[in-house]
Amino acid sequence: MADFPTSPLKRTLRIVFFGTPEFATVCLDSLVESQHEVIGVVTAPDRRSGRGQKIQQSAVKSAAVAHGLPCLQPANLKTPEFNEALAAWEADVYVVVAFRMLPRIVWEAPQFGTINLHASLLPQLRGAAPIQWAIMHGLNESGVSTFSLQHAIDTGDVLLQSKVTIEESDNAGTLYEKLLIHGKALLLKTLDSLLAGELMPQPQLSVKPRLEAPKLCRENTLINWHETTDNVLNKIRGLYPIPKSWTPSPIGDIKVLKAHSIDPTVALPRDAQPGTVEVIRDALVVRCSDGWIGIDELIPPGKGRMSGIAWSNGLQTPVTQIGDQA
Questions:
Q1: What is the pLDDT of residue 326?
Q2: Are strands 141-148 and 254-261 parallel, antiparallel or unpaired?
Q3: Chain centroid to CA 33: how far?
């Protein structure tokens, strides 16, 4: 467990930053511009991708190069070579934003341990996809947390938190932007508090029910039309713009991008089976367990995004049922 100072330090903090995606680059940029000293960066190894199998570097690697910062890209975080190179930087603290799990030999090495930024109000939404699951769980509030890293993932003592309201119009993309703004500010506030000797770690409380945020996969991004309209709409907007929700159909898998609720007074069959597809008032609608939703945008197999009604109108044979039972 990190032993934070209880009186102001009369020097700057020496920081090694760990991160990979674009979310992390914004935090790295703000740290570089702060009173603290970023002395090195650790990110994922360069990888080949795309049709030409060209070598691609991570967003954080690009930012490190732009700032002229030394960068380590280990495939294995436990090797003596990597840990000796890391120790040579003589950091006071490591900062982690959207990086893979660190072994104990890494996270406990600095004097003040390792501080992680997580996109939820811990202990809620521990896991790999807290932004999407906040909406999928139907929450009206989320936020960001800084915490001291320990062995069990996302379980360390909470340092600071910042709350963010989730509006009905939010999707994973808009919530991402909100949390990014709050996250980079909270990270700086946490490091400023450490420097001032004011950090007061708090153990994570037991919360019931405690919601999880597991890694997204084909199974948990599948739309279950037997769920309520609220749950289905939350899944669709929680998975937009990435990775997107999907549903089976007689012509192949369809990605559902945007949808809306249908007024229950609209004349539609009340005894229709979940997954039933209808066209009414120039709108494509689908039955859930307790009502209907309208499909605004989708991506059918082998085509680009289009409106639900345009897809329906272009079919040679109408699709009347989607979902597992289609």
A1: 56
A2: unpaired
A3: 25
Q: Is the per-residue pLDDT at 175 higher than 90?
A: yes
* DSSP character at residue 157: P
Yes or no: say if 241 and 172 are a contact pair by the CB < 8 Å rule: yes
Which band of pLDDT confidence, cut at 50, 70 and 90, is reported for residue 1?
Answer: low
Q: What are the backbone dihedrals phi and psi of residue 161, each rounded to the nearest 5 degrees, phi first?
A: -140, 155
Q: Is the pLDDT of residue 60 over 90?
A: yes
What the block records as the tokens of 165 is 């309201």
Cα separation, 193 vs 187, in Å, equals 10
Alpha carbon separation from 139 to 82, 110, 219, 259, 278 (Å, rounded): 41, 36, 21, 18, 30
As given in the structure block, the two tokens for residue 89 are 């930087």
CA distances from residue 22 to 5, 60, 121 in whole angstroms, order as listed: 32, 7, 21
Residue positions counted in the chain: 326
- Side chain identity, residue 147: F
Integer-rounded Cα radius of gyration of the chain: 23
Average pLDDT in the 295-300 region?
98
Cis peptide before 123 (omega within 30 of 0): yes
